[in-house]
Design goal:
two-stranded antiparallel sheet, globular, 5 helices
């Protein structure tokens, strides 16, 4: 029997956002007792909470996220345990673990700082050699439990994007996958004409 694990952050009013991004607003604008129905309004950028970045975000690329085939957002998952690594580097053992077209998740456990300033200012970063390895393996997507794989000027972002690798950010609950041998990731974006999208990321244990 399949088991589903939610890997997404909750979307709530005034939730954490990347420094400089607009604040998130979520409020109830209609009440059942007064208006006859209940309704909520949401104001949020496409990089709030758990979301996917596409190449258009940082390089000259003309494809919006709603134009990317759906099969790019689902596939076999692969978890690398990189806890306590400030600079996340390549290891020889990854050669046999990571396969072509995998959705590779990096478990840093940094999601425990979500909501604090340090989550955005002091998170780990991915090394050039690990990025090059993932590109050579031709993975489908990179998923991380932190806000970014790098810091300004975002060269790792750009390197991955130039090889058409999507980046799934602000994941949660990756600890639930530590002992999972076989799982798939599903992270469908909104059908929105934008460079990124909020997603409900889910792991399916097989």
């Amino acid at each position: 029997m399949k088991r589903f694990i939610d890997l997404s952050q909750d979307i709530i009013d005034s939730m954490p956002v990347y420094p400089g991004d607009d604040a998130v607003t979520l409020y109830q604008n209609k009440c059942l007792d007064k208006d006859g129905y209940t309704s909520f309004n949401l104001g949020i950028g496409m990089h709030g909470g758990t979301h996917i970045d596409t190449p258009m975000h940082l390089i000259n690329h003309e494809t919006f996220i709603n134009e990317i085939p759906l099969d790019r957002f689902a596939g076999k998952g692969c978890l690398l345990d990189v806890r306590n690594e400030k600079i996340i580097g390549f290891k020889q053992e990854y050669i046999d673990i990571v396969k072509e077209n995998d959705i590779v998740l990096l478990f840093t456990n940094y999601s425990e700082y979500y909501g604090r300033d340090e989550y955005y200012t002091n998170h780990p970063v991915i090394s050039e050699d690990l990025a090059d390895f993932l590109i050579e393996k031709n993975i489908k997507m990179l998923g991380i439990d932190m806000p970014s794989p790098d810091m300004y000027p975002f060269e790792i972002h750009k390197k991955m994007f130039k090889h058409n690798i999507l980046i799934l950010e602000n994941l949660a609950n990756l600890s639930d996958l530590i002992n999972a041998d076989n799982f798939e990731i599903i992270a469908f974006p909104l059908k929105i004409r934008a460079e990124a999208s909020l997603v409900r990321a889910v792991a399916v244990l097989l």
